[in-house]
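Hi U.,

Before I forget, here's the chain from the pilot set. I'm dumping it here mostly so it's searchable later in email.
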Amino acid sequence: MFELNFDNKVVLLTGASRGIGRQIFEDLDALGAKVIGISSKDYDFSSNRSVDTLIKRISDYQKIDICINNAGINFSKNIDQFEIDQYNKLMDINLKVPFQICRKVSKIMKKNSYGKIVNISSIAATRVREGRSVYSASKHGLVGMTKTIAIELAPYNILVNSVSPGFTMTEMTQNMLPKNEMRNLEKQVPMGRFASPSDISKAVLFLCSELNTYITGHDLIVDGGFTYSVTV
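Structure:
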């Protein structure tokens, strides 16, 4: 019988302090992984200097088995109200920094002929909502980047996938959505509820585990059936 076991695995995880990232951190830690948890308390992903410091730190590691790019932000504004500095900040955090981390981590993984990379995208990459033009663009770009680098890194035994959560009961969701809208959205989810951070973490753990030996370049949607359901 196969079991999830991350003993002796070194994991780099961004956005580790709350929500989905916190759940992933706790689950990996409980399963024996050595988790390098990165959060906004440690680095400002909208600052080039701060990101450069992080990349330099990553360069010092001889071994990174798993990389999970989870950090992300969201603004809800229509296109004519979106400021350029807000666009730059959102795209930097959601897309540019994951690219920089993947670029650096992949060099370490290639040397070791082993690695798993999971980028946390969103159903916003395929199912759009008013006010989320830049957020959707960032997550769509993240999925595209994931699929491309999966092809590039496959010869080196490095599997690269993304996970796209649906509506998930996190602090960010509760801050962005009024309670009445959350209730209405729950009714549109075929499973009748929002995901818990644990629902998303389980999908990430599978892709990062030794149970996954051949899945790469895939975007795993974890949304209780919402994306492809028909609502009336």
